[in-house]
Amino acid sequence: MNTVFLALGTNIEPRCTHLQKALHDLGANEHIIIKDKSTVYETAPVGYTDQADFLNMVIQIETTFSPIDLLDVCQQIEQGLGRKREIRFGPRTIDLDILIYNQEDRKTERLILPHPRMHERAFVLIPLYELNPELLIGNKGKCVSDYVGDLREQDVKDVRAWTPSE
Q1: What are the pLDDT digits (tens) for 48-91?
Q2: How far apart are CA 40 and CA 24, in angstroms?
Q3: What is the longest distance spanned by two Cα atoms in the chain?
Q4: Where are the alpha helices (DSSP H) in 40-163?
Q5: How many CB atoms lie within 10 A of CB 87?
Q6: CA dist 56 to 1, 38, 65, 161, Å?
Q7: Is 165 helix (H, G, I), strand (E, B) or coil?
Q8: Distance CA 5, CA 92 (A)
Q9: How many CB atoms lie within 10 A of CB 124?
Q10: Going along 64-124, which residue ranges are E strands?
Q11: Are the C-beta atoms of 57 and 127 separated by less than 8 Å?
């Protein structure tokens, strides 16, 4: 089995429903076992900022899929939930990113592992820290807690635990 960390994000309503459906679709796949889930966090958009806040989380899975096959499954789930790729870093019903796959370093046209920008993103690092603060990222000898310590204070404050309104 391969150990993988995935990031999930959504900012098009109903945000919570999109997260739940993505989790359901991942868990319903016979080649994927969801082992752990972070808290859901609400975060301001990064990059293209003229859009609604995101809900973000990280999950740990075990899978028999290769990295590319897992990427295909993630993109099929995104497409099934109406994901459109019109604006880079723009609004999305769901975004599923492979962050870490068995500590592999891989660079292909379709997939870079570990995720090339994860160490800069509080909305990824904070939920990942919750699951495994000592997880090594890449071959630089730095773990998640090191990268969280490098974040700007304001970036950390902008990642807020989310509670659904009743």
Answers
A1: 667 789 999 999 999 999 999 999 999 999 999 876 666 555 57
A2: 15
A3: 44
A4: 67-80, 122-131, 144-150, 153-157
A5: 12
A6: 25, 9, 24, 10
A7: coil
A8: 20
A9: 27
A10: 95-101, 106-107, 112-113
A11: yes
pLDDT digits (tens, 9 = 90+) for 82-119: 766 665 555 778 999 999 999 899 999 999 999 999 99
Decide which of 86 and 43 is more confident: 43
Distance CA 134, CA 85 (A): 33
* Position 18, amino acid: H
Residue among 22, 67, 27 nearest 40 (CA) = 22
Single-letter residue type at 79: Q
- pTM of the predicted protein model: 0.93
- Which residues are part of the catalytic machinery? 83, 92, 95, 97
Rounded to whole angstroms, how far apart are CA atoms 126 and 131? 9
